[in-house]
Each structure stands twice: as C-alpha cells, then as structure tokens.
Write a structure and sequence with these properties.
By secondary structure, the protein is α/β, with parallel strands linked by helices. It is built from 19 helices and 17 strands.
C-alpha cells in the first residue's frame, strides 16, 4: 500500500512508556506500506531506541537493510533547562523536575523543523505526515510550516486520554465541593472522584506549570489532522465514543501495539523485553520458577518503570502477600523518598521476609527489571498487581490476566475506573501514595481474585480474545485495528495527493 518514496517523521515524547508504542506503531506501518519512517528524539532516547530496534528482527532488518527505519538524534542539553546532566526521561526525577522536563520538550520544536526541512530538501517534497505524541502539540506548527499534516498519537487508551484531557483543560473539581463530579465530555452517569486526581491536578488553578504545559500542548494537538489511539474498538466502546466527540476529529484505534508474539496464542517465541532493558533475573530462571507453580496461582506485582510506593505501604503489601500463602513475583524498588536506582535495603520489608519466602519458594523478589511479557503470558500467572499504566494494562489483558489495581500517577486512576466499571476485569486495592493499605486488605483482595474471581478471569480472557481478533487478518477477514491502520494510511495518502494537486494548480 502506498508509494515507496513516501516518508513519515515520528516525534515521540521523552519517556520509555511513550517511546516503545511509537516503535510498535512504526513496525505496523512498515509491514503494510513501503514508506520510510524517521523517528526523532533526544540523543540518549535515540540510543535507547537503537537498542530496542536491535532486539526486534522486524525493525532491525528495516533499519539495516533497506534504511526504511531511521533514527535521528535531535540536539538537546538537559543542563540548559535546569535539569541534571544527561537527563532525557522522567525516571529518577522529582515531581518538580518532571514538569521541568515536560516544558523542556518544547525546545525540540526548532530542531524538529530543521530535520523535516532537510528531508524536504533531500527528497523534493514534504513527508506525507508527522506523527507526534499528544504532548508534542507544537508539532502541528512544524507540519504547517512544511506543508504537511500532523497526526497526534496518544499512547494511552481512549477513556484515560479523554478523562486526562478534559480534567486538565476544564478542572471540573474546582467548581464543586463534592468529592464526586461529572467531567465534560463524559455521560453524566459516569462520575469521577477527587481521589482519582493526581496531586498536581488536584491543586491546579490553570496558571501553574502543570496546567500551562498540558493546556497548551493538548490544545495544539486538537488542531491535528487526526488522532491515533493505542486501543481496540471492541474493548473501549465508551472511551472511543467520548474521545471522538471531545476531539471532533477522526480517531483511529490501531492497538494494541504489543509484540506480535503476545497476540498470537500459538506462539512459543521467547519475548525480548521492551526497549532491550536488562533484567534483574534471567528469563530462564523466571520461567523455571513459574513452571513449578500450579496453573493460575501466581500473583505478579510491578508498578512500571517510573513508579514506586511508600515505605509503610510496601511493608503492608509484603505482609499481606505472605499471609495469603499465594506464590508471587514482585519487582521491587526503593520506596518513595529514596533513590529509585539505589540499592534495595532489607529494612524496607518485614524482618526475615526475603529469607522466608525464598526458603518456602513462595515468592521471588526481582530487583531492577523482570521479564514481564513472559511472566504475564505464563499459564501459572493468576493476577497482576499493577499501577494501571496503559502499556502494562494491555500486556496483562492481552493474556487474559485480571488486574489488581493500584493507580499512582497520570491517567492511571481513570484506566482503573474503566477496567473496574466498564470491563469488569479489575479490582482496586489502593489509589495513590496517600492510601492506607493494610496486610489484611491485601490478603483479602488477593484471595478474592485468585479464589473467587472466576467472572473477572472470564471477562479478562474475553477482552484478550477481542484484542487479538482486532489485529488478526486471515481468510479475507480483517480485524478492526487492521482496518483502522489501512484507513489511516489511505487518509494520509489522499490528503497528500490533494495538497500536491493544489500546489500543482498554484504553481502551474
């Protein structure tokens, strides 16, 4: 589909949870077109992407053999923005530094424009489109200047994206004293609770640094030609309806953007972890441990690449897991207030905890990174204690694994709300760092999901099947996400053709 000389420039946001879906999107586009794709980001994030490309056979061949996938490093010096040296993603940053990083992303507008202008000079015409992160709303200006279109890509789900946007743009909680309130764009029956708001939205007044960033960039993204959303029509009916109405422009649901082996029930391929990160445990050791456990018995606990919980919460979670008697794999990091990349200390867990769970083979504590994809698709995994980040949610649900939700930041509480109320595949254990968590509550929730959660499991399996069907193409039948991707490609080709014909008339 499409001519080989067409070119797409991608501008992902500077965070691992955004970079990897952009790579997955590039893979999808490369598989159905002859386009060239250039992904441009900061130097350290480009190096991170290069390692991820090297570990993905489809992408590495596109990068090395045909040069259809290119990585471009945009000049960026974190020290110029009052950030620590060599800081190009939010990991290890304090909240104040995180918003400084967000604002610093605007400095990429000029080098992005120069990059695209160089492509125009080399190829004789503009790229067919720019695909930018919704947090890079300034890309709409870059697209205008070089006479192409910008397509905004939200790496989150539709429900979470719509709630996040409406919350930042309208601050609905500011006009009520009630803990529950409606949110513009959502049905009146769909109420949100004040505890779902992260600390920065809660105190926002529209002029604070967080409000200034999100209101500006999201408004610019609404001026895009269209949006792409990392979700599936069949699993987010309400979310997509709200998002389409709210944006007023086409929204193509082209997800789930996951490794192909995660979406193929018959695949036995060993999965490389997103981004080529090193694990704190070998995949083989992890699988051997899982193999020793009964089907649907293991609890997997991970709060994503950037999050952790408070020290008292960590202590109670450990006690509750041990009391449940259920086997578990826990990706542990130092609690809030300590260096996230520092050494994990035994004092943050109950006395003798690690020795007991190791001797009894009840638990496996993993420092740094675990082979999450392999854990989630293993038959022994019963439930996923998750921060409800969208990438993790998709990974778990694609394998039919119910979620025990503990949303912490960003749009995670909105994702949890949807998975609880709309999908029926999640039960919330806690919400945020302010939640008081008890060992007893942890034990109860773990037992509920593993022993009485048959309906949740059934629904999670059903959601996983719908996700797999959406990206399937067989016997002449195309899944909804396959069709959406093709419709998107046709739309940008058509728009480019119209621009070029108009330019021919103007110059003719």
């Amino acid at each position: 589909m499409g001519a080989s000389q067409e070119h797409i420039v991608m501008l992902p946001f500077m965070a691992h949870g955004h970079l990897i879906p952009f790579l997955a999107l590039a893979r999808q586009i490369l598989q159905i077109t002859n386009f060239t794709i250039t992904i441009a980001t900061t130097p350290l994030n480009t190096a991170y992407l290069r390692s991820a490309v090297a570990s993905d056979p489809t992408l590495s061949s596109a990068a090395s053999e045909s040069r259809r996938l290119r990585l471009a490093a945009l000049p960026f010096n974190s020290s110029d923005h009052d950030l620590p040296p060599n800081t190009e993603n939010p990991e290890s940053l304090t909240p104040d530094q995180v918003i400084t990083l967000f604002h610093s992303a605007a400095a990429l507008e000029s080098p992005s424009h120069r990059l695209v202008a160089d492509i125009v000079a080399e190829e004789g015409r503009p790229p067919i489109c720019i695909i930018s992160d919704v947090f890079h709303g300034w890309a709409t200006r870059v697209a205008e200047k070089i006479e192409t279109v910008n397509v905004s890509f939200t790496t989150c789900g539709a429900f979470g994206t719509a709630a996040y946007m409406s919350m930042w743009q309208n601050l609905p909680h500011k006009s009520t004293d009630s803990d529950e309130f409606p949110v513009q764009g959502f049905p009146d029956s769909c109420r949100f609770h004040r505890t779902m708001l992260n600390q920065f939205v809660r105190v926002a007044d529209g002029t604070d640094p967080w409000s200034r960033f999100f209101k500006t960039q999201l408004a610019l993204s609404l001026g895009s030609f269209a949006w792409l959303c990392n979700t599936t029509e069949e699993i987010e009916v309400l979310g997509l309806e709200v998002l389409r109405k709210y944006t007023g422009i086409p929204v193509w649901s082209i997800g789930p953007l996951l490794p192909p082996a995660m979406l193929n029930s018959n695949s036995s391929t060993t999965l490389t972890q997103h981004g080529g990160r090193g694990s704190g445990i070998s995949t083989q050791k992890c699988i051997e441990w899982l193999d020793s456990k009964p089907n649907c018995s293991v609890i997997y606990i991970s709060f994503g690449s950037q999050n952790t919980i408070g020290s008292s919460q960590m202590m109670e979670l450990a006690k509750g897991l041990e009391q449940s008697g259920k086997p578990f794999i826990w990706v542990i990091r130092p609690p809030v207030g300590f260096d996230p990349k520092g050494e994990f200390k035994s004092e943050w867990l109950p006395k003798g905890f690690e020795g007991r769970i190791s001797d009894s083979k009840q638990g496996l504590l993993v420092r740094k990174w675990a082979p999450q994809l392999e854990i989630l698709r293993h038959k022994s995994t019963a439930a996923f204690v998750s921060h409800c980040g969208w990438n993790s949610a998709l990974e778990g649900l694609s394998q039919g694994v119910p979620i025990i939700g503990w949303p912490l930041v960003s749009e995670q509480a909105y994702n949890a709300k949807m998975m609880v109320e709309e999908m029926g595949v999640c039960v919330e254990l806690a919400r945020g760092l302010g939640s008081v968590v008890t060992a007893e509550e942890v034990r109860k929730v773990v037992e509920l999901v593993t022993e009485e959660g048959g309906e949740m499991k059934r629904k999670a399996v059903e959601i996983g099947e719908r996700m797999k069907a959406a990206v399937r193409e067989e016997e002449g039948r195309k899944g909804s996400s396959v069709k959406a991707m093709e419709d998107f490609v046709c739309a940008i080709l058509s728009a480019a053709g119209e621009r070029r014909r108009a330019a021919g008339v103007v110059h003719g």
